[in-house]
Each structure stands twice: as structure tokens, then as C-alpha cells.
Design a protein that fits this description.
Strand content: 15-25%
Oligomer: single chain
Bound molecules: threonylcarbamoyladenylate, magnesium ion
Largest sheet: 9 strands, mixed
Number of domains: 2
Shape: globular
CATH architecture of the largest domain: Alpha-Beta Complex
CATH superfamily of the largest domain: DHBP synthase
Distance between the termini: 43 Å
Number of strands: 15
Length: 327
């Protein structure tokens, strides 16, 4: 299959034709690129699982363009869910709610709940509106590979497996949406993201982080190895350790450092990818840095960015990508 990459009105027209025919289409959102299909068509949805090589017990998020599109997808909207919709949508958040019978069971992997997200990216919204349907979509990467934050990332990973990529430039937020389960007594964060526990607690009064045992996809990304680069990656807390590891490794491989600007200024002529000097930039650039690092090197040493605010969500991805290895 030839994979087309298109922009603008032509892209949206072609995308909505393909979706109407039961095909899959990659599209930009503010978090990462998604691989979408008609959420009401279980056969179209099954093509997503095939293209990604995704285990079918891992449910998909359903994307909508307008708040009024949520009602047919869910059984009811709890006060917690309503508060999240009112305060954070559109935006980088996914709300788990009890699903309606209209949502096919392969979307939710047999669960009685469904994840709903209203992206804020204008191209995502236009794409969904043009289709006139809710769009089921995971990130547009092969299962276990790094999430894509540009059309090129999608193309390099999925070319030949999908008919179209709608190119909407680089993703602004850069890490996947916060996932919050509102079907539990206290709203539970299943995946941290750019909207933090503190942001949510201000509106909901209380939230907890999921810490329990991993059952069927209850804790996204915990059951499956996610976000891994093709080469080994380790995390370093101290610059001196990172540099010593780099020099040791450079005897027989091509190490690459991923770090913020403060470190970059002190690494001399070592290979380095600078992800910026503030939290927003680090989140936006982290996946792109991993994509680039695995192209130019074969061993990645990534700075530990700490755990305050959005850095907790960034480190959630970095720790997965490194398989928890630290130096
Ligand atoms: O930012 C995002 O959320 C991106 C863009 C494309 O919207 N999507 C994304 O999808 O990251 P994906 O499939 O890569 O990650 C979605 C996660 C999965 O780990 C899945 O287990 C979890 O959401 N999930 C989906 N529905 C769920 C449900 N009903 N209950 C619990 N977890 C759910
Ligand atoms: Mg994903």
C-alpha cells in the first residue's frame, strides 16, 4: 500500500473519504499523532489493531469535535466527568466513562467503559467534523515504538501500512493526554500528562494516581512495554555520571545525550540533543529527541528531569523508554 502525506483542505477531503470507506487515517493532535477510524464501525477499528500490531485487549480512545458528540457514546456523565469536560475540554485529556451500546466492543477491548477525548488541535477538530463521526484512535505508531509527534515520525514508522497521513506540523504538547477514570469512587489518573494531578485536584477536589495491580488495560502502558526506542536507553540524575557513561560507551558505540539546555552547555563536543530550557519545551521535544537519537546513535543517555509538574509525566515516558535503567 502506498502511504500518501497530504496537507490542508485536500488532506481533509481525502481523509474523510477514506474514513467513510472504513479505512484508517493518521492525523495530528496537540499531544501526538493518532491513527483514526470510524468508532462506530468495528471492522474499520480492527484495521487499526492490524496496522499497529496492537494487542486487542488494549482499548482505544474515542475522539470527538464537539461536546454534544459525547452524549451518544456514554451511558451517563457523572458530575466529576462533567467538571472535567467543562474545565479541560478541548485539551490534552481523556476521560473514562461508562460506555453506551453504540460503541463496538473492540474499541473498548471488551470493557464496559470508554475513553473520550476532545482534541484542541484545529486540524484534528476539522478532520473529525469533516468525517461527521467519532474517531477511535490510538497513537499512530507501531505497538511498542515511540509515539509520533510529526508526520515524518508517522511516515518512517508506518509507511506501507496505512493509506494516508494528514500532515499538521509538529505536536505542541508532545506527550499523550492525561487519562482520568471517573468511574471509580475517587477520580483516578491512569496516565499522567500535561494536565497534572494538581490541575485536576483544583477542579475535582480530589484525585488519586493509579497504583494497583495491572489488570486488563486498567493502567494504560503499564501492562505493555511502550515507547521504547530501538536502542538501549538509560537515565542519569547527575551530569558528571552522564558524561562518564558517555565517554566509557563511546569506545565501542555511538552514545547520544538527551538533556536540557543547562546540561547541553557543559557537554563539550559530545553528541547531544537539547530539549530546551523549560517544562513545556522538554515535553514538546522529548519524543522527537528519542526518534532522532535512535537514528544518529545506538545508546541513549537521558537526563532525569525530576518530578515537579509536567516533568512527572515526561519522566513517566522516559522511564518506560529506558525500561527503568539508571546509571
Ligand atoms: O493523547 C492521546 O491520548 C493520543 C492521541 C492520539 O489522542 N492517544 C493515545 O492513544 O495515546 P493510545 O492508544 O496510544 O493510548 C491510550 C491508552 C491505552 O494505554 C489504553 O489502555 C487506555 O488509553 N485506555 C483506553 N480506553 C480505556 C478504558 N476504557 N479504560 C482504561 N484505559 C483505557
Ligand atoms: Mg500509544
Amino acid at each position: 500500500m502506498k502511504t500518501e502525506v497530504l496537507q490542508g483542505k485536500i488532506a481533509l477531503k481525502r481523509a474523510s473519504e477514506l474514513i467513510a470507506q472504513g479505512e484508517v487515517v493518521a492525523f495530528p493532535t496537540e499531544t501526538v499523532y493518532g491513527l483514526g477510524a470510524n468508532a462506530f464501525d468495528s471492522e474499520a477499528v480492527s484495521k487499526i489493531f492490524v496496522a499497529k500490531g496492537r494487542p486487542n485487549d488494549n482499548p482505544l480512545i474515542v475522539h470527538v469535535a464537539d461536546k454534544s458528540d459525547i452524549t451518544p457514546l456514554v451511558d451517563y456523565i457523572s458530575p466529576y466527568a462533567q467538571a472535567i469536560i467543562d474545565n479541560f475540554m478541548p485539551g490534552p485529556i481523556t476521560v473514562i466513562m461508562p460506555k453506551s451500546d453504540k460503541v463496538p466492543s473492540n474499541v473498548s477491548a471488551g470493557l464496559s467503559t470508554v475513553g473520550i477525548r476532545m482534541p484542541m488541535h484545529p486540524v484534528a477538530r476539522e478532520f473529525i467534523r469533516e468525517c461527521g463521526l467519532p474517531i477511535a484512535a490510538p497513537s499512530a505508531n507501531t505497538s511498542t515504538h515511540i509515539s509520533p509527534t510529526s508526520a515524518k515520525h508517522v511516515y518512517d514508522d508506518m509507511q506501507g501500512k496505512i493509506p494516508l497521513i494528514v500532515d499538521g506540523g509538529n505536536c505542541e504538547v508532545g506527550i499523550e493526554s492525561t487519562i482520568i477514570d471517573t468511574t471509580t469512587d475517587v477520580p483516578t489518573i491512569l496516565r499522567p500528562g500535561a494536565i497534572t494531578a494538581q490541575d485536576l485536584a483544583k477542579v475535582l477536589g480530589q484525585v488519586v494516581n493509579f497504583t494497583g495491580e495491572v489488570v486488563v488495560a486498567k493502567a494504560p502502558g503499564m501492562k505493555y512495554k511502550h515507547y521504547a526506542p530501538t536502542c538501549e536507553m538509560v537515565v542519569a540524575k547527575e551530569l558528571a555520571d552522564a558524561l562518564a557513561e558517555y565517554d566509557r560507551k563511546s569506545k565501542n558505540c555511538r552514545p547520544v545525550l538527551i538533556c536540557s539546555t543547562i546540561w547541553t552547555q557543559k557537554v563539550g563536543d559530545r553528541r547531544v540533543i537539547d530539549v530546551g530550557d523549560n517544562d513545556k519545551q522538554v515535553a514538546r521535544n522529548i519524543y522527537g529527541a528519542m526518534h532522532e537519537a535512535q537514528e544518529i546513535g545506538d545508546y541513549i543517555i537521558c537526563q532525569d528531569f525530576g518530578d515537579s509538574g509536567v516533568m512527572l509525566s515526561v519522566m513517566n515516558r522516559v522511564i518506560k523508554a529506558s525500561g527503568g535503567k539508571r546509571i
